[in-house]
Amino acid sequence: MNSIEGIKIMLVDDEPHILQFLELGLTNEGYVVKTALDGMSAVTLAQDFQPHIAILDVMMPGMDGFEVCRMIKKSGAQTSIIMLTAKDEVEDRVKGLTIGADDYVIKPFSFEELLARIHARLRNQFPNMFNEVTYGPFKLDDRKKEFVYHGRILELSPTEYELLKFLVMNNGIVMSKGMILDRVWGYDFQGEENIVEVYIRSLRDKLNDKEHQVIRTIRGSGYRVDFP
């Protein structure tokens, strides 16, 4: 990832120890961080702070994270929103995505996973803030919609490009088929989950990943990109 100087992140959670932990970690990473303990404070803070990323806990007393998300998006802000949820339920994911959330993280989560999600949102929503980005053997230039792998430009369809980008930018994290469908095909996709398998197979062919060492299948869970 290129320089993150000046990138602002707003954290919203009613649990002070979570806020403290995340604030310390993200500040050490170089982000400018501000926090709020409740929904109303978050809405006011978002107007004044204008964060690039807002990380919102769903379950808060009074105004919950969904309502905060709705109000931030309604204001026209360019803030990218990541929801924190303790429930791995399709209804919660769909509700969040429908009202404008850009991603979600299921509690409990690792700090490294959250960082990967933040990096992915910044690359997707604010591509002009960064030049070409390197992830292991991959080089990604989102402005050109171009992937280079071990010095070789990959010939990818638009869907293959988006799928590989999602997996690479979340490298080391297992992505379920449902999560991939939400992010790459859209939450309203009406097709079969096996479309993911078809595209994974095609990507492996183009990466010459015959042993599935780059895009790994995690049985019963999904797929994970590793950098050998």
TrEMBL record:
Pfam families: Response_reg, Trans_reg_C. Residues 130-227 bind DNA. Residues 8-122 form the Response regulatory domain. Residues 130-227 form the OmpR/PhoB-type domain. The keyword Iron does not apply. It comes from the Bacteria. SMART domains: REC, Trans_reg_C. It is found in: Cytoplasm. Keywords: DNA-binding, Phosphoprotein, Transcription, Transcription regulation, Two-component regulatory system. This is Response regulator transcription factor. The lineage of its organism: Bacteria, Bacillati, Bacillota, Bacilli, Bacillales.
